[in-house]
Design brief:
Helices cover 43% and strands 19% of the residues. Helix 4 packs across helix 5. By secondary structure, the protein is α/β, with parallel strands linked by helices.
Length: 191
């Protein structure tokens, strides 16, 4: 359920990007098992009933869910995972992997630019874009629940900011798995 973090996410400590399971058909330009894992409604409900999702939500009339097992396996092996989810999914992650969670909220520089970007993707109908725009204010209202806020005026600059956040978070004492061994060794060698 992971693919290598490429496409501009260079030199990051991120091992993979979470890929959702969706009970819908791919939109133009989306590829099954790359952009998402597309499953039928029955399979999605089955996975939901079996508690196989780390997070799931209905966003803009579509259901999304992140399979739990591959994410938990990656985290246990010390890998980092980058999620592309909305506030509903983030709240669910806070309940299950809070100690491993770094929350970054990415904002567009303006409503006009948001609409331009949604239209430029050329993946949604005009009605869907209008629906997304009408709900954007509610989505944005959750910004205070996040640790970091990035205003995405320039894609490359935003990637660099995210990279800086991930580096700094990885250097926190509580996230350095081998620090106790290093400290113990230093103390032994110094006495």
């Amino acid at each position: 359920f992971f693919f290598q973090a490429e496409d501009g996410i260079r030199d990051w400590s991120v091992t993979g990007v979470q890929t959702c399971a969706l009970p819908i058909s791919p939109r133009p330009l989306e590829v099954n098992e790359s952009d998402y894992f597309f499953v039928n409604d029955e399979k999605f409900i089955d996975m939901l009933n079996k508690d196989e999702f780390l997070e799931h939500a209905k966003v803009f009339d579509f259901y999304y869910g992140t399979p739990k097992k591959p994410v938990m396996n990656a985290l246990k092996s010390g890998k980092d995972i980058l999620f592309d989810i909305d506030w509903q999914g983030t709240q669910q992650l806070m309940n299950s992997v809070q100690d491993d969670l770094v929350k970054i909220f990415v904002l567009p520089p303006s409503a006009k630019e948001l609409e331009k970007r949604l239209l430029k993707r050329n993946q949604d109908t005009d009605e869907t874009v209008k629906n997304r725009m009408s709900k954007a204010s509610d989505e944005i209202s959750h910004y205070a629940e996040y640790d970091y806020i990035i205003i995405n005026e320039d894609f490359d600059e935003s990637l660099e900011k995210i990279n800086s956040i991930l580096i700094a978070e990885g250097l926190k004492r509580t996230r350095q798995n081998k620090i106790q061994d290093v400290i113990r060794s230093l103390r032994v060698d110094l006495f």
